[in-house]
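Notes, Module 5: Reading structure tokens.

Key idea: the token line is not a picture. It is a compressed description, and you learn to read it the same way you learned to read a sequence, by spotting repeated patterns. We will look at two proteins. The first is printed below with its tokens.
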Amino acid sequence: MMTDTEPAVVLVRTFRATCDKLYQAWTDPVMIQRWLAPGPNVVEQAETDLRVGGRFRLQTRGPDGAEHRISGCYRELEPARRIVQTWIYDGPLDLLRGEETLLQIEFTPRDNGTSDMRLTHKRIARADIREAYREDWPSCFDKLAPLLH
């Protein structure tokens, strides 16, 4: 069993957006469809049930046609402040499939209309899986940044 002291992927990025807008980007299915897939992958479907205990589901597709599914459950929802949700990958990548990991996303307002977003991806048992997520998340954030203006 993993504990919160296990190694995690921690990324912090500053966006030209309010914390409200960043929270919306993570919780509004229309927004999610525009950015929450790494690299050249695209989100084909996104569903959210925004309540503690509610579920979310993503279906993405890669340029090779491969279908990737991610699902999970919301553990904490604090509008414009924090989201904690489980993250379960189901798709063709054996490396990532089947493990329930935990995402913690925190939003902090800064000066000049910017906000910091801190993503902590926990409960990832293996170093190679952590590295895969460490490489993929920034490409998602690159897609998110222009949507927030």
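Here is the second protein, with the sequence above and the tokens below, as before.
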Amino acid sequence: MHDEVALRRAGSADALPAADVWLRSYAAALPSVRCAHTAAEVRVWFARVLVPHRETWVATSGSSVVGVMVLAGRELKQLYLDPAWRGRGVGDRFMDLAKQRQPAGLTLWTFQVNRPARRFYERHGFVEADRTDGARNDEREPDICYVWAPAP
């Protein structure tokens, strides 16, 4: 059984459902990491910054948003799936789309404690380029910079 999922650019009506996916995914994937922003702040950030000013994509099943991806040039800024949709190929489709949109290469940051995300990115050809103590991120959580470069 394979649920039909469509990937498309986010519109203003997607901002709040996409923010809610982000919030559910963050809570499920990063239970030990303090979220630096309230749910209301995250929703405003999606509505006023990400959807109107960044290359924001959503994965939808029927009328529901089940995933969100945000690109800012060559940086993959956000990739979050509704917890019920993990392991169903949606993240792989987002990654293929990100590589199509930025064929010269991508960078991203993820928290060191997020081992499932690290395995996912490594499986998609990303290599670790840097580690920090988290002093530069809002959560103050140690993180890793990953880079993907296409094969020559």
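Summary for the second protein:
- The first helix runs from residue 15 to 29.
- The first strand starts at residue 6 and ends at 9.
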